[in-house]
Write a structure and sequence with these properties.
It is built from twelve helices and 13 strands. The chain is α/β, with parallel strands linked by helices. It folds into three domains: about 110 residues, D-Maltodextrin-Binding Protein, domain 2 (3-Layer(aba) Sandwich), CATH 3.40.190; about 110 residues, Periplasmic binding protein-like II (D-Maltodextrin-Binding Protein, domain 2, 3-Layer(aba) Sandwich), CATH 3.40.190.10; about 90 residues, 2-Layer Sandwich (Double Stranded RNA Binding Domain). The strands form three sheets. The protein has a five-stranded mixed β-sheet with strand order 2-1-3-10-4, sandwiched between helices. Strands 7-6-8-5-9 form a five-stranded mixed β-sheet, sandwiched between helices. About 5% of the residues have low confidence. Monomer. It is an enzyme of class 2 (transferase). One of its GO terms (cellular component) is cytoplasm.
């Protein structure tokens, strides 16, 4: 019997249940062991102020190392690139949507008569990129326009595109954040599409943020285990999705090379396309004023570490200065 450690939120239990079902499909019995994380207990402090790295994984790491569970299941974007000693990646499940979405507040109304909400939706989605340049005040100069997110990455990218907005902190599981949004006067709140879609809670009035690059490994589920537990590692290897594992490794290599963590505005997306990998990444200053980008295509026959290569490119395109400035301001 494999004991599967999981946070006890609806989404976390859903993810752990997928792992349980996949293992049992291979004849491996498993059971869930819910565990409270530090990130679930403190819903007030902004993530960037909690020293975020590992805030959602530490309790599960401790349970794993003390042999209370055999594997831990995580949203992979929450997992630090450096795993604790004795813990290894056991499997990565096939990736769901990597996108960020804006869930609109149904109670919000434009403050000016004639202000077209549909045009605001188009500008936010990025489906009509010329709209923003034609009407630069459409979003940024609406008085007191607020967007909610606890992610410094999402905040930085939003402010880079819409510099006049206010960003409100929002914490809690997806159900809690949806409720807080409905009770607010915010235009909307930013969520990971995969999280809402997995548990059937994505509202009809949500918008894909096609221009926003995701966190490294967003949309992927990671299973960790003790490195010494060969039996469990062999079982988990059977549920590993090789293509997803390759892409998210490139993204996390990019993050690691830039010395970034969950509290750093670093984004990355790697997509396999036949015999090559399309890699996009960015580093944005927390206030949105500075941005460095990389957009490269790597042949799988010629390169083994695309994430590291992309990091070298972006460092020479301005990321080094942005990161140095952030480090000096800490």
């Amino acid at each position: 019997m494999i004991r599967i450690g999981t946070r006890d939120s609806q989404l976390a239990v859903w993810q752990a249940t997928q792992v349980k079902n996949l293992l049992e499909n291979f004849g491996v019995p498993a059971q869930l062991e819910p565990i409270k994380s530090e990130g679930d207990l403190d819903l007030t402090t902004p993530l960037y102020a909690m020293g975020v790295q590992g805030v959602f994984t530490r309790a599960l790491d401790a349970a794993l190392l003390s042999n209370k569970i055999d594997v831990a299941v995580h949203s992979m974007k929450d997992v630090p690139v450096q795993l604790p000693e004795g813990i290894v990646e056991a499997a990565v499940l096939e990736r769901a949507s990597y996108k960020d979405i804006l869930v609109l507040n149904e109670n919000w109304k434009p403050p000016f008569p004639g202000r077209d909400l549909n045009r605001i939706k188009e500008a936010v989605s990025g489906r009509t990129p010329d709209l923003i340049s034609q009407t630069p005040d459409l979003i940024s100069q609406i008085p007191d326009l607020a967007i909610a997110t606890s992610s410094v990455r999402r905040k930085a990218q939003w402010l880079h595109r819409f510099p006049g907005c206010t960003i409100e902190n929002i914490r809690g599981n997806v159900n809690t954040r949806l409720r807080r949004l409905a009770e607010s006067n915010w235009l909307g709140a930013i969520f990971a599409a995969a999280g809402l879609e997995r548990i059937g809670l994505r509202p009809a009035n949500s918008i894909d943020l096609n221009w926003m690059l995701p966190a490294p490994a967003q949309g992927a589920i990671m299973v960790t285990a003790r490195g010494s537990d060969i039996r469990t590692l062999r079982a988990c290897n059977r549920i590993n999705h090789v293509q997803t594992a390759f892409c998210v490794k490139a993204e996390r290599d990019f993050l690691s090379e830039l010395m970034g963590g969950c509290a750093t505005p670093i984004s990355a997306l790697a997509i396999l396309e036949k015999d090559h990998l399309h890699f996009r990444g960015s580093v944005v200053s927390p206030d949105g004023t500075e941005k460095a980008e990389v957009d490269e295509i790597y042949s799988l026959n010629d390169i083994k570490t695309p994430g590291k290569q992309a990091a070298a490119v972006i460092l020479n395109k301005g990321a080094k200065a942005i990161i140095a400035k952030m480090n000096n301001e800490k």
